[in-house]
Write a structure and sequence with these properties.
By secondary structure, this protein is of the alpha/beta class. The protein contains 10 helices and 5 strands, in the order E-H-E-H-E-H-E-H-E-H-H-H-H-H-H. It has a 5-stranded parallel sheet with strand order 2-1-3-4-5, with helices on both faces. Helix 3 links the parallel strand 3 and strand 4.
C-alpha cells in the first residue's frame, strides 16, 4: 500500500454517514483525514499548512461549497478542491471549475475514481493553456460553428438541452459533439474541457 500520511484530505460534508465512509476509505488508502460537518467548521479550525486537498460537498447547511471556495480565495488559502455532490449540476459545476476546482464527482463515488481525482488535484495535473495557445488549438482541430456554439454553452454553464434548443438539434447530438470536443482538445474530464474551452471561446469572441 502507498502511504500518503503526510498528505491531509479535508472532508467537508454534512452527511455523517458519507463523511465517515469517505474518512474510512481515505484512511485505509494511507491518507491523513480531517472531517468537518459544515463550511463554518472548516473555516474556524486551525489552518493546516500541510500538503493536502479539500473534498468539498456542494450542498451544505448554511454557506455552501461554492461559498467556501470563494471564502478561501478571499483569505488567500490555496488548496486544490474536488467537489462532490448527490446531483449532477452542470451550471454550478462550471462555476466551481472556472473558480479553480480540480474536479466534480457525483455520489455514489467509486473508490478508484475518488483516488484518481485526488491524485490529479494534488499533482496539479490539469494544465491551463497559455494565452498563446487557444487560437492554435482551435485552428489545429478545425472547430466548426456548431462546436464553437457548444463550447460557448459549456463555458456559460448551460445544460445540454438548452444548447440543443439553441441549435435546434437533439440532446444526443450535443452529447456526441461534446465527446468529439473532448477528443479534439485532449480533455480527460469535463473539468479539463471547461478549462480548455474558456480561452478558446474568448479568443474567438475577440476575432
Amino acid at each position: 500500500m502507498i502511504v500518503h500520511a503526510a498528505t491531509v484530505i479535508h472532508v467537508v460534508d454534512d452527511d455523517p454517514a458519507m463523511r465517515t465512509a469517505l474518512t474510512r476509505l481515505l484512511t485505509q488508502a494511507g491518507y491523513t483525514v480531517k472531517g468537518y460537518p459544515s463550511a463554518g467548521e472548516f473555516l474556524v479550525a486551525d489552518f493546516d499548512p500541510s500538503r493536502g486537498c479539500l473534498l468539498l460537498d456542494l450542498e451544505l447547511p448554511g454557506p455552501g461549497g461554492l461559498d467556501l471556495q470563494h471564502a478561501l480565495q478571499r483569505l488567500g488559502r490555496q488548496m486544490p478542491i474536488v467537489f462532490i455532490s448527490a446531483h449532477r449540476d452542470i451550471p454550478r459545476t462550471v462555476m466551481a471549475i472556472k473558480a479553480g476546482a480540480c474536479d466534480f464527482l457525483v455520489k455514489p463515488i467509486e473508490a478508484q475514481t475518488l483516488f484518481a481525482a485526488i491524485d490529479n488535484a494534488l499533482a496539479a495535473a490539469v494544465v491551463v493553456p497559455s494565452p498563446a495557445e487557444p487560437g492554435k488549438l482551435a485552428d489545429a482541430h478545425h472547430l466548426n460553428a456548431r462546436e464553437l456554439v457548444v463550447l460557448r454553452g459549456i463555458v456559460a454553464g448551460r445544460l445540454n438541452k438548452q444548447i440543443a434548443a439553441e441549435l435546434a438539434v437533439s440532446e444526443r447530438t450535443i452529447k456526441s459533439c461534446r465527446a468529439d470536443l473532448m477528443r479534439k482538445l485532449h480533455a480527460n474530464s469535463f473539468a479539463d474541457l471547461v478549462i480548455l474551452a474558456e480561452p478558446i471561446v474568448r479568443a474567438h469572441a475577440s476575432t
